[in-house]
């Protein structure tokens, strides 16, 4: 083995010993990904099903009864009670018996018969915002489907061309993941968060620690080159990051039935570029952070938070304020989340995700160049 | 024609362990090292002394190839360390007061790591490991975590790992600060052993009593070398003056009296006592000084004439520099 190989090997081995001796670090690398996966998939489920619902039929017609039956049939709403008048809704909400109330006013069937849009009141208990939002979406979708069925029925009996009367708005909804099984949706994003933590955060901390101990000073005087030290110190984290990717992917497929629909090569190339970007960020932090505490805090701010909040992992990027959406473009996580979801869920390959792959390639190149420059200057 | 780096007209000496000409390092407007010349013969213990911030560590950084000078020439073991640090590094060692040990690694793992860094041959490593464990008195404790060793052992292990590759030249930057006097003496015994095997030692310290352990000394102050020579040559700097040791209960008040008294060239705290330096021309002996102190109200003053220490010389040099 060449001198450089021996030297880098010594650093890699030492680094693995550090990880093995530090139970907290070991937990971060090996246990946290699994815990997060289980936590997000089971405990903090974003799935909303079987919403307890109370219905109030003030129309008392076959049409109104058919409309309300559609709620029951959807499986999304569990009709727990029939109220005689709207005050029943308050009572049900107060007693936490229902989260949703559907009120069909008198004249519902008559409006439909005249070809007008019928009014229906859907009340949602807003004290649980996530369920509330989902319930709202469901009932709107339901109304639309039902309304379209009605309209189509009406139109066909009257023999009118649908396209001309404009009653049916051709509004498109993205029915990806139609069951809204959040685990399937979360696994690809979680992968990205974990890589970011394991690589960017640990890279930032591990080099600063060496400096704080005075060992960096010692190594600078030795034949170990700066680049050899970096490669040696980063290699274990890259290995562990890819290990985590495999563990999450396997768990995702086996436990949660995450489909692997797209091109695995595109995913692997994206992941490699993403890991390189994370290393770049970590190295930049380690070059500018004066102490271990600062490095930890800075890594948290630039690695963990954006990966978690601004990547599309937890919050959809089109629902966050424009300023934050713009900021999210400065971090690599959002590109990787898109790649990961597109490949795993939508069956994408390079033709679909090349803009994100290109963005990550540029990101990796620039961040690594800045990092090398900053570390060179510190000498 | 004089090339840069031949300030004294004598070119740098490639046969010396260290030979430096006109070395200058600036940080912005601050000149940390100001055109120094230095020659350290091979096989010597060379003491590099000076107060904090005087340029000691900056000089070591340049000589170990981790910092580039603004001007000047630095030959280390005959190689130009500025141009080719990689030729010098395998042959030099370095140790600072931060023992560069990984505390969560065992004694053996630390040794193995540094052996890897210097790409030692397995057979060489086995022999060096045996030697270091014996030298540091760590036989049987190879599998102990470094964190659990007490300071003295850690220091000896750090000395072992820093010299695992048997360097010809060994830099020590204040290696004994923060170590108790007994451990300090034991450590110097180990340094002598190294010197006895022909290793050149370049030691910085601010413990003046350690200066007398060295073959040669250089004193750096504000980036300039203000004195250089053997300990006895350095002491000869004070041959025109006498040093008196003054013991008095109210030392603070006595010091301010001495600082302003006629005929006293220099007065300062030295350990628990005061030192007063008087030019031989106006010196009238210990008794006369005691009489003056008693007259000034220090009835318990005890005055003894002493041999000037290295510290006396340096205090004197610094005050001359300040006056200049």
TrEMBL record, chain A:
Matches recorded under InterPro entries: ABC-2_transporter_component (IPR051449), ABC2_TM (IPR013525), ABC2_TM_bact-type (IPR047817)
UniProt keywords, alphabetically: Cell membrane, Membrane, Transmembrane, Transmembrane helix, Transport
Predominant location category: membrane
Gene Ontology MF annotations: ABC-type transporter activity
A Gene Ontology term for the protein's cellular component: plasma membrane
Membrane-protein topology: Multi-pass membrane protein
Transmembrane listed as a keyword: yes
Residue ranges of every copy of the ABC transmembrane type-2 domain listed in the record: 152-378
Claim: Transmembrane helix is one of the keywords in the record: yes
Transmembrane segments: 25-44, 181-200, 234-258, 264-285, 297-317, 353-372
Compartments, record wording: Cell membrane
Record-linked PROSITE patterns: ABC_TM2
Pfam families cross-referenced by the UniProt entry: ABC2_membrane_3
PANTHER family referenced in this protein's UniProt entry, alphabetically: MEMBRANE COMPONENT OF ABC TRANSPORTER YHHJ-RELATED, MULTIDRUG ABC TRANSPORTER PERMEASE YBHS-RELATED
Entry's family note: Belongs to the ABC-2 integral membrane protein family.
Protein name: ABC transporter permease
Organism: Candidatus Phosphoribacter hodrii
Lineage, highest ranks first: Bacteria, Bacillati, Actinomycetota, Actinomycetes, Micrococcales
From TrEMBL, chain B:
Recorded coiled-coil stretches: none
Keywords per UniProt: ATP-binding, Nucleotide-binding
ABC transporter domain mapped to chain residues: 18-247
Top-level taxonomic group: Bacteria
Keyword ATP-binding annotated: yes
Molecular function in Gene Ontology: ATP binding; ATP hydrolysis activity
Pfam families: ABC_tran
Protein name (record): ABC transporter ATP-binding protein
Organism: Candidatus Phosphoribacter hodrii
CDD domains associated with the record: ABC_DR_subfamily_A (cd03230)
Gene3D superfamilies: P-loop containing nucleotide triphosphate hydrolases
């Amino acid at each position: 083995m060449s001198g450089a190989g021996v030297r880098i090997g010594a650093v890699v081995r030492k680094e693995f010993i550090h990880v093995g001796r530090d139970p907290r670090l070991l937990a971060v690398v090996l246990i946290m990904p699994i815990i997060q996966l289980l936590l997000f998939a089971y405990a903090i489920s974003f799935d909303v099903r079987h919403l307890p619902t109370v219905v109030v039929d003030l129309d008392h017609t076959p049409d109104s009864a058919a409309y309300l039956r559609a709620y029951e049939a959807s499986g999304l709403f569990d009709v727990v009670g029939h109220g005689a008048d709207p005050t029943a809704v308050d009572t049900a909400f107060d007693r936490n018996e229902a989260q949703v109330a559907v009120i069909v006013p008198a004249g519902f069937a008559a409006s439909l018969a005249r070809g007008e849009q019928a009014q229906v009141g859907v009340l949602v208990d807003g004290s649980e915002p996530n369920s509330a939002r989902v319930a709202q979406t469901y009932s709107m979708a339901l109304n639309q489907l039902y309304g379209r069925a009605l309209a189509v029925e009406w139109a066909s009996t009257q023999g009118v061309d649908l396209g001309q009367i404009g009653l049916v708005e051709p509004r498109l909804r993205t029915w990806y993941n139609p069951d809204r099984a959040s685990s399937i949706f979360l696994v690809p994003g979680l992968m990205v968060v974990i890589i970011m933590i394991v690589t960017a955060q640990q890279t930032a901390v591990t080099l600063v620690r060496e400096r704080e101990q005075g060992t960096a000073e010692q190594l600078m005087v030795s034949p170990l080159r700066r680049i050899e030290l970096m490669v040696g110190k980063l290699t274990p984290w890259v290995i562990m990051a890819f290990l985590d990717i495999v563990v999450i992917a396997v768990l995702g497929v086996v436990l949660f039935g995450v489909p692997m629909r797209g091109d695995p090569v595109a995913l692997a190339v994206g992941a490699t570029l993403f890991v390189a970007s994370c290393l770049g960020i970590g190295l930049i932090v380690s070059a500018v952070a004066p102490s271990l505490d600062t490095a930890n805090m800075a890594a948290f701010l630039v690695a963990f938070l954006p990966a978690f909040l601004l990547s599309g992992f937890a919050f959809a990027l089109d629902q966050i304020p424009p300023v934050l959406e713009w900021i999210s473009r400065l971090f690599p996580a959002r590109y990787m989340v898109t790649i990961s979801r597109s490949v795993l869920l939508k069956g994408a390959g390079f033709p679909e995700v090349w803009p994100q792959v290109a963005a990550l390639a540029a990101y990796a190149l620039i961040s690594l160049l800045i990092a090398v420059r900053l570390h060179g200057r510190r000498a | 024609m004089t090339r840069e780096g031949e300030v004294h007209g004598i070119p740098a000496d490639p046969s010396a362990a260290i030979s430096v000409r006109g070395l200058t390092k600036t940080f912005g407007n601050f000149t940390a090292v100001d055109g120094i010349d230095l020659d350290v013969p091979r096989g010597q213990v060379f003491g590099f002394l000076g107060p904090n911030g005087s340029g000691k560590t900056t000089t070591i950084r340049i000589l170990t190839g981790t910092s580039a000078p603004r001007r000047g020439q630095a030959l280390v073991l005959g190689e130009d360390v500025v141009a080719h640090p990689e030729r010098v590094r395998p042959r030099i060692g370095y140790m600072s007061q931060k023992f560069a040990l990984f505390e969560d690694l065992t004694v053996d793992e630390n040794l193995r790591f540094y052996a890897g860094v210097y790409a030692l041959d397995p057979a060489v490593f086995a022999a060096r490991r045996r030697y270091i464990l014996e030298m540091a008195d760590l036989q049987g404790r190879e599998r102990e975590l470094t964190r659990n060793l007490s300071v003295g052992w850690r220091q000896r292990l750090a000395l072992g790992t820093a010299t695992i590759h048997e360097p010809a030249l060994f830099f020590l930057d204040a290696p004994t600060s923060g170590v108790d006097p007994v451990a300090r003496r034991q450590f110097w015994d180990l340094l002598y052993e190294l010197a006895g095997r022909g290793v050149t030692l370049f030691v910085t310290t601010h413990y003046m009593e350690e200066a007398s352990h060295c073959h040669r000394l250089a004193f750096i102050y504000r980036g300039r070398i203000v004195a250089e020579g053997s300990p006895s040559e350095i002491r000869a700097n004070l041959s025109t003056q006498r040093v008196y040791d003054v013991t008095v209960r109210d030392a603070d008040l006595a010091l301010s009296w001495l600082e302003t008294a006629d005929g006293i060239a220099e007065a300062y705290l030295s350990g628990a006592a005061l030192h007063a330096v008087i030019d031989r021309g106006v010196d009238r002996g210990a008794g006369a000084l005691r009489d003056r102190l008693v007259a000034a109200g220090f009835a318990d003053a005890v005055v003894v004439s002493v041999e000037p220490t290295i510290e006396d010389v340096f205090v004197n040099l610094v005050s001359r520099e300040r006056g200049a």
